[in-house]
Amino acid sequence: MKAKQFFIMLCILSLSAYSLAQEQESIEKPENPQKKGTVTLPDKTPEGEEQIYVIKKGDTLWHISGRFLNNPFRWPIVWKANPYIVNPHLIYPGNVVKISPWGEIIIEGKGDMAAIPEGLTVEKLQKPEEAPLPAEEAQKEEVVTMLPPALEEPAPEVIKISSALMERHGLISVKEMKGSGVIIGSKEERLLLARGDMVFISLAKGTEAKKGDRFTIFATTDEVKHPVTDKPVGFLIETLGMLEVINTEADGAIAAKIDVSYKEILKGARLKAYEPPVKEVAIKKGGNLVEGFIIASLEGKTGVAEADIVYLDKGRSSGLEQGITMSIFRPREPIADPLSGEEKKVISPPPAELGRLVIVNVEEDTSTAFITKSRQVIYKGDRVKTAE
Q1: Which of 210, 242, 273 is at the close of a domain?
Q2: How far is CA 283 from the centre of its chain?
């Protein structure tokens, strides 16, 4: 009898131990283990319903991916799966986040996002259609997009004019020569005038002067003729000094005082409006193509090179302005083709590039230029054209 009871108790204990082991095994090994990269949804039904999350202020794809996919670095995959998101940094409160049973995040606005009407901007589709918010709430919900600062235009290149002779020498055109003035006498009758002397001047018709106006006193040296047409273009001049108008009389007499003198000044010396010497020039792009000739150089030098001053036969009327750069070139002589036979063909080689210059002063029909680069000696008659 005792043996029978002992056997029954042993069977009961065995069945209990087996049941406990089965229960423990079912806990440690689930029937549907979670795959790497998926999210187990607490409210997912056996059919695999999606979990829905509504985006709140402050959410980003980074945080959403980290929260629901356990890996914030998967945000580019989310962005790629939603091509209507133009900027991954701009998602809006009220957009819906759906998480599928396979761990994918789908972001959409209210309503069906599968059919996007053509012609609407992405931004309008991303924002949910909500009633207008009060002014204070609208300011809180405003999305601020940081734009890169506007790129500043580079400062123009500046050429320093190193010639100290520009104030002492120059070129005056035939037209300007007719419109200049002259010293007609002095307060104290002297043969030679210098700094500090009081003089009387006369100006060409149409030229006005008032107290404080300054004029350059000059004398002509050589006549300048065009290297191709041989027509007179103007005169090389030498500056003798400067004067300042002291007062003007009712009868037309103009009194002036010589305040600078480089050389002796005689009665009859010519005058032209004073222009301060150019110290530096800002480079600018030229407009239309302008071609011309070098007609003279400072002090009448035969050959010039870099850092020398030259004069051109084109000016303001041709479209030149201060700061425009021009290339200097010399056409090459045509070459007869020895292989052309009776056809006697002639080959025109490209011109020789001599250097570059920049316009520093412009008159109506002439201009002054500073040579910034030279490859060989440059002469009167060499050609110039606006640089490309």
Answers
A1: 273
A2: 13
CA distances from 59 to 38, 62, 119, 166, 326 (A): 20, 8, 28, 70, 60
Residues 6+ apart with CB under 8 A from 363: 173, 176, 315, 316
Helix (H) or strand (E) holding 140: helix 135-141
334 and 367 assigned to the same domain: yes
b/e code 334-357 from CB counts within 10 Å (16+ = b):
eeeeeeeeeeeeeeeeeeeebbbb
Same domain, 114 and 215: no
Q: How many domains does the chain have?
A: 3
- C-alpha to C-alpha distance for 19 and 9, rounded to whole angstroms: 16
9 backbone dihedrals φ, ψ, rounded to 5°: -60, -40
Domain around 245: 162-273
236, part of any domain: yes
Local structure of 300: helix, strand or coil: helix
CB atoms within 10 A of CB 243: 27
Q: Please give the Cα distance from 158 to 323 (Å, whole number).
A: 9
- Are 249 and 174 in the same domain? yes
CATH classification of the domain holding 371: 2.40.10.340
For residue 375 the two structure tokens come to 């490859």
Handedness of CA 127, 128, 131, 136 (dihedral sign): negative
- pTM comes to 0.56
Cβ–Cβ under 8 Å, residues 94 and 130: yes
Q: pLDDT tens digit string along 332-382?
A: 988 888 887 778 888 889 999 999 999 999 999 999 999 999 999 999 999
